[in-house]
Amino acid sequence: IHKILGESFYCGIMERGEEKYLGNHEPIITQQLFNNVREVAKQKANIKKQTIAFAFRGILKCAKCGCQLTATKKKGRLIYYYCTNGKGGCDEHKAYLTEDSLSKELNDSVFDNLVFGDKIVNLVYKAKLAESKNTLSYLEESILSLHSRLRKLDERKNALLDVYLDKTIEVSDYEAKKTIIQNEVVDIKKSIEELETKKSSQDNSTLERIKNFFLEPKQMKKEFLSSLPEKQRETLIDLLWNASVENKKIANISFKQPYNVLSKIENKSDFDSMRRGWDWNARWLAQK
C-alpha cells in the first residue's frame, strides 16, 4: 500500500531513476493530492470493526468518564441508552435515555450547528458568481506565465546542449543539469495541465454544488425525526466523529469535514464568516 501511495504515475508523472516525465495517460488524482498523500502515508490507522445492534451505539460517549454509551431494550420495545461505566464510579451509568428523546436531542444539537438561512447563502452565492470571473482571468494569466517559463527552460536546454557539443562541459555535469531542467519542465507542464482543468471547471455548476451543500443541513433536519433509526444512524455517521452525553443532554459534538468548518461559523447570518466557510468548502470539493 505504501508503494502504491508513493507512485507518481497516478497523478500523471512517470519517474525513471531521478528523472521525471509527463505521462500520456489520464491521471486519476491531482498532483496536489498526490503530494498531500505522501505527507500522511507514514501514519498508521487501526480500524476495529464492530457489529452494532442499536442505531446510536458506537456514536455516543459519556462526557464525564469518556466511556461509550451502550443500549438495551426494556419494557417491551423501548430502547434505552446509558454509559457502560467501564472505568467504574460514573453516575451517568444510572441515567437512562430513551431512543426517541435521544433522537430529538441529536436533531436539535447537531443541526443547529450546521443550518444556515437561505437568504445569506444566496447572497454569498451571488458574490461568488462575480468572483468566478476574476478567478478565470487569474488562471489564464498563470497559464501564460508558466508557458513563458517553459520557453525559457527550452532555451536553457538548447544552450546547455551547445556547451556540451563544444566539449566545454563534463558529461556528468551536463547530465545533472539536464535532469534538473527536465524535472522542472515536467512539473510546470503538470501545473499547466491542472490549471487548464481548473479553468474548464470555472462554471456555475461548481458554485451550485457548494450552495446546495450549505442548504443541505436544513433539509436533513426536516427529514431526521421522521426517518427510521437506521437512516438516522447513516446520517449521523456521515456528519459526526462522535458526540458526548451528560445529564441526558448532548454535551459536545465532533463533526467530520467539511461539516466541522460549518459548525465553527458561530454567526451564521454574518456575510464575511459565511464567505470564509464557502472558500474552505470550495477547496475541499476541489481536492475531492
Please give a handful of descriptors for the protein shown:
288 residues; three-stranded mixed sheet; three-stranded antiparallel sheet
Short description:
This protein is α+β, with helices and mostly antiparallel strands and 288 residues long. The protein is 56% helix and 14% strand.
Description:
The protein is of the alpha+beta class and 288 residues long. Helices cover 56% and strands 14% of the residues. The protein has nine helices and eight strands. The protein has helices at 2-5, 31-40, 99-111, 118-165, 171-200, 204-224, 229-239, 259-264, 271-287, and strands at residues 13-16, 19-22, 60-62, 69-74, 78-83, 97-98, 240-246, 249-255. A hairpin with a 2-residue loop joins strand 7 (240-246) and strand 8. Helix 3 (99-111) packs antiparallel against helix 6 (204-224), helix 4 crosses helix 9 (271-287) and helix 6 crosses helix 9. The mean pLDDT is 85.
